[in-house]
């Protein structure tokens, strides 16, 4: 399992075919090129940490942010590649994605999403854009002509951003142009987003009962009837685990063990957790109600204990 994860990360990293930096570090986008793409989706991920000073308007983002940003970017690139490789999902259609760095900051989110509006496939043709192409003079080099024809209008939706990254502001702007905003992490409880209608779509409410039910359904779908569980010791993940236990019992799933790891668990504690998982020979499936830090710690401990491929983690 770990080998597949690492391999996928290396693969999708190689798929980043264009990276443009303009002005400062925040104005960047990562583009998964698709030859002759029919439709394009935009995405806002925090590739960098927020500006160090939020009291003043700033476009200078912080350091690279691996877990909430880069990993989501890699997952999005992999998802697009998987969709395009399957004929049963979008037959005779090619999907592309343009991922923009919002640095988990509302002002930068608005700046970045404004660059996508001109590509909207939903805009009615109510006016004619007249291009002013630049033509290279005949005495310049080989006499080739350069012409800026503008972007294709094939953007169908924007994925993100999170509430902390200005989701309500982004939605307000996109809704003016009838561009759907798709949330990948929305609890449905935030008062700022409780009234979002029309062009706001939540992939799945990010709440403990829904997450637990989704995990139980996934385990049942693959007929995994004997699993181990690991959870990060906090109120949210403990509540999700409790709900998972109730639902999985009804669906005939047996839970071999429950392993708790604190948010600041040491390397030794991760190694001990993996040792306990290895003791249950038939419990190769591990359901993890964990933070990204806990998941990363488990992967490291699995690798260091030469247990790569031993477990299937459901996260």
Automatic annotation (TrEMBL):
GO terms for molecular function: G protein-coupled receptor activity. SUPFAM superfamilies: Periplasmic binding protein-like I. InterPro entries: ANF_lig-bd_rcpt, GPCR_3, mGluR, Peripla_BP_I. It is found in: Membrane. Residues 1-26 form the signal peptide. One of its GO terms (cellular component) is membrane. This is Receptor ligand binding region domain-containing protein. PROSITE patterns: PROKAR_LIPOPROTEIN (PS51257). It is a multi-pass membrane protein. Residues 72-310 form the Receptor ligand binding region domain. It comes from the Eukaryota. Its main location: membrane. Keywords: Glycoprotein, Membrane, Receptor, Signal, Transmembrane, Transmembrane helix.
């Amino acid at each position: 399992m770990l080998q597949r994860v690492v391999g996928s990360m290396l693969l999708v990293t190689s798929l980043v075919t264009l990276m443009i930096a303009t002005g400062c570090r925040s104005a960047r986008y990562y583009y998964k090129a698709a030859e002759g793409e029919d439709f394009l989706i935009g995405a806002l991920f925090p590739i960098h940490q927020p500006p160090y000073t939020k009291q003043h308007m700033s476009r200078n983002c912080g350091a690279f942010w691996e877990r909430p940003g880069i990993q989501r970017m890699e997952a999005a690139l992999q998802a697009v590649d998987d969709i395009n490789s399957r004929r049963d999902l979008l037959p005779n259609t090619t999907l592309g994605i343009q991922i923009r760095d919002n640095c988990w900051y509302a002002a930068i989110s608005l700046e970045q999403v404004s660059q996508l509006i001109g590509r909207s496939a939903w805009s009615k043709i109510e006016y004619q854009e007249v291009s002013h192409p630049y033509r290279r003079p005949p005495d310049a080099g080989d006499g080739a002509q350069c012409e800026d024809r503008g972007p294709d209008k094939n953007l169908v939706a924007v994925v993100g951003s999170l509430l902390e990254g200005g989701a309500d502001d982004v939605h307000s702007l996109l809704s003016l142009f009838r561009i759907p905003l798709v949330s990948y992490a929305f609890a449905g409880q935030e008062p700022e987003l409780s009234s979002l209608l029309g062009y706001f779509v939540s992939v799945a409410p990010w709440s403990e009962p829904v997450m637990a039910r989704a995990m139980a359904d996934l385990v049942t779908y693959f007929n995994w009837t004997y699993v181990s569980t690991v959870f990060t010791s906090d109120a949210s993940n403990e509540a999700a685990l409790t709900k998972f236990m109730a639902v999985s019992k009804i669906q005939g799933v047996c839970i071999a063990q429950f392993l708790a790891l604190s948010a600041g668990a040491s390397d030794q504690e991760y190694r001990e957790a993996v040792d306990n998982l290895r003791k249950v020979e038939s419990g190769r499936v591990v359901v993890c109600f964990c933070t990204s830090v806990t998941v990363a710690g488990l992967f490291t401990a699995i690798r260091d204990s030469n247990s790569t491929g031993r477990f299937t983690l459901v996260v």
